[in-house]
Amino acid sequence: MNMNQTVKKGEVIFFEGEPGNCAYIIESGSVELSILVDGEQKKISQIQAGALFGEMALIGNHLRTATAIAVEHTELIVIPEKYVAEKLENSDKFVALLLKILLQRYLSMRTRLDDVMAKAKTDANLLVSESALPECSRDTVVAALQLEAEHNLKHALETGQLELFYQPIIALDTLQVVGCESLIRWRHPQRGLVPPVEFIGLAEESGLIIPIGHWIIQEAIQACQRFRHKSSHFAFVSINLSGKQFIPGDLVDYIQGIFQQEQIDPKHIKFEITESILMANPLDAAASLEALQAMGSTIAIDDFGTGYSSLSYLHRFPIDTLKIDKSFVSTMLENAKSHEIVKSLCILAKALVMSIVAEGIEKVEEHQRMRKMGVNYGQGYFYAKPMPESEFCEYLLKYQSQAVVDVAK
Q1: Is there a single domain that holds both residue 224 and residue 277?
Q2: Strands 4-7 and 74-80
Q3: Is 167 helix (H, G, I), strand (E, B) or coil?
Q4: Scanning 99, 107, 250, 337, which has the fewest C-beta atoms within 10 Å of its C-beta?
Q5: What SS3 class is residue 397?
Q6: Which of 49-53, 160-164, 254-258 comes out lowest in average pLDDT?
């Protein structure tokens, strides 16, 4: 079987809309791919040696979705559909099934992306809306595009597109900036600032949360040193931990190594966890948290009161700080039950010698109520939104010698 083909400069390899029965790999040379839009031929890409094209023909006699023309003298490796079908048929049944599924997913992804490029309505790197997909292909398209999203996220970590923002934490007795919470952001070159809700789930599913988590820990600890040089009042940076970070078993060793490398007292770092982490892996989480606490760091339980069996965690795990969820804070002025829950949490925390952080404070009335209840710290848009490090340093300097809030408030 001759699997090589030579094409001259300007020669058409195939036309858009004609049946396809093979794919190609460029061995040398280059190929231009174009599509017909409003009666005009529009170039969509020029591919070089090593590139695969026309691959949708490997999954059946599908029509070509673009026209391919040799830009220069080009050597091609031809991959006939029948050849691939025979290889799949003669391979291990499980492997054959897996490859067929992957090929079908790839077909679905390419079909959608080609349609996107033809309409020129959006960037092919962005995930599409499920409602825009045919019912039978939603899962395959989303799964295939997820692979591309994982690649983009990994590339973002490697090329410095990820950065940390910092939201001030205010001591409600002195009204000074005493700490901050580190919050990750993705500064995408096309999309701009991407919030974590759009990629943290992907990072956890793909395992990228491990290297991303390591980067966050090191970056936040280094930033803490810089913040402490800016303000004599500044005491700590809070770092959020994912449950996935406890699984490899080397989290504590890694953190200890960074503490030693940066020569920072661990007491300046507070690690935040959620109730879901404690529920998912209680034994490993407990051991790791106890080790971190033994080093001198403090542990905060985030979104407290929104999960299950909350009270049992307070004696089973080494918790130093309760963060009252913003859903209670934002409704306590109008909802008597929310008010009583916050009041009860304050009494409980004081009895257990734990500090309290009220999240999501957005109104002066909420700020005043928290001070009267004896809450230790406040965090929320009332004081400041999360901001890049440079802006946070300016914020620290501004309030180095004055209260963040007018004392009258």
Answers
A1: yes
A2: antiparallel
A3: strand
A4: 337
A5: helix
A6: 49-53
Q: Which two tokens stand for residue 205?
A: 């599913």
Burial readout 74-93 (b: 16 or more C-beta within 10 A, e: otherwise): bebebbbbeebeeebeeeee
Q: What is the mean pLDDT of residues 143-156?
A: 74
Find, among 346, 344, 325, the residue nearest to 336 by Cα.
Answer: 344
pLDDT score for 138: 45
On the CB side of 105, how many CA atoms lie within 13 Å of its CA? 15
CB proximity list for 238: less than 8 A, separation 6 or greater: 169, 179, 180, 181, 182, 270, 271, 272, 300
Work out how many domains the chain is built from and give that number.
2
Report the first-to-last Cα separation within the chain, whole angstroms: 84
pLDDT tens column, 167-219:
999 999 999 999 999 999 999 988 899 889 889 988 988 889 999 999 999 99
CATH number of residue 57's parent domain: 2.60.120.10
Pair 183, 85 in one domain: no
**Based on the domain organization, do 112 and 165 belong to the same domain?**
no
pLDDT at 95 over 70: no
**Residue 308: which domain range?**
160-398
